[in-house]
């Protein structure tokens, strides 16, 4: 006898089995007389279903429907929509590019109408995207339809989960064929760079984290008609699987610069150095005297604040223009306002080093500036995505409400919801919960907070007594001058507490990690040391050329392999 698995079984006291009912419904009503040469087995097989032992004739239909009593009511199921057919092959390619173009438009719209970017930003980004589309012409050439059952997998799709230490968007030796989601933000940054706007990588990353431009959960803003027709392979490209770091955006912009230079010969201008340099100095609450010192050191080091276009050279973080600028700022700060307690006396009261920064006051002002958005027991805009399961256990009631509001707005998709049970549990706050919390405070403007921090630090600066050269000759011993006993830090453990706070703030404003900033500053100091040695040789021999200085500085950095890490 053959065993056949069955769906749900419902045994009644009386009744017969109709073949039509068996074919149309998942429930079967049976009686002891409803089987010919067979019966119901109480034994369950491996599939956890009861089985029917029948003869060759199987189940017979009772022509007179004898013995049927009562009425059978069957629950009608709600009609469900048929699944939309997904595109394949080149139709899917075209639709993916259209979706990506829509994302670019949404980001430009947010930058122009919400962040105050000029209207030309959309035109510049559109032209950059038009050039990028030319690289897909071979892929899109040919008939619009494809007989392939599955979409083609492209090189930007990860083949295996990456660890936290790996770069989430690392490119292989073969150039990426299809655009990545982070490239859209990179194109917006390059558009601002072409317009000479004082916008930094850290600014773009902050707008991403605060969701001031569409990026996180961008798939939610795509129309459902387009989303349902895209294969899952393409949808995964537009999903944010990990928290995007500012260093990944640095990497994406650099790869885009390589691409446009190699394919189209596009040359991007250097950073708008005066405005961005002033922005960095103001954010770090440094005296304005640092500005000319940075300009002087830039000329000595040969930094141009431009993205490298030679993809064959070894890539270091110091090759990035914003990293070059912040490294020079750190060096100039250490020369004028060192972090130790050694007293250094300038020769004149007009020198920048004639005033001293109280680094304890600076650290307190910086902590107050960093905690301005979490004051009053708030999570802080842009910090919601960083919340983990441990943080939830320590949250207050208002913080939970704030987090759930963010989660509802960012991750839940209420479109096309047909579940009647879900309508009984509406989303969002209702009644008294919809009123703002008593502890909620209006967001403090960043410019006002920066100005308050700068005023606090500048008001606590102390003067340093000046000792002229003539007076120094009268004193026993050598008088320590500004720049003497210069401290260099090669690793994070070497930083004193005051220097660590400043390095962390500088790394944040540049959009890089603290270890990478330490390495970049150390490489800058090596270049300056090499320049100082070459200057001494020129005084004695007068034959050392600038090209030899540059080559020697690169060789020195090659020797310093410890801690050197590429992006």
UniProtKB/TrEMBL annotation:
This is Pol I core factor CF. GO terms for biological process: nucleolar large rRNA transcription by RNA polymerase I. One of its GO terms (cellular component) is RNA polymerase I core factor complex. Residues 246-411 form the Rrn7/TAF1B C-terminal cyclin domain. Belongs to the RRN7/TAF1B family. It comes from the Eukaryota. Signal peptide: none annotated. It comes from Monascus purpureus (Red mold). PANTHER family: TATA BOX-BINDING PROTEIN-ASSOCIATED FACTOR RNA POLYMERASE I SUBUNIT B (PTHR31576:SF2). Keywords: DNA-binding, Metal-binding, Nucleus, Transcription, Transcription regulation, Zinc, Zinc-finger. Residues 141-168 are annotated as: Disordered. It holds the Pfam family Rrn7_cyclin_C. One of its GO terms (molecular function) is RNA polymerase I core promoter sequence-specific DNA binding. InterPro entries: Rrn7_cyclin_C (IPR048538), Rrn7_cyclin_N (IPR048540), TAF1B/Rrn7 (IPR033599). Residues 100-224 form the Rrn7/TAF1B N-terminal cyclin domain. The keyword Disulfide bond does not apply. It is found in: Nucleus, Nucleolus.
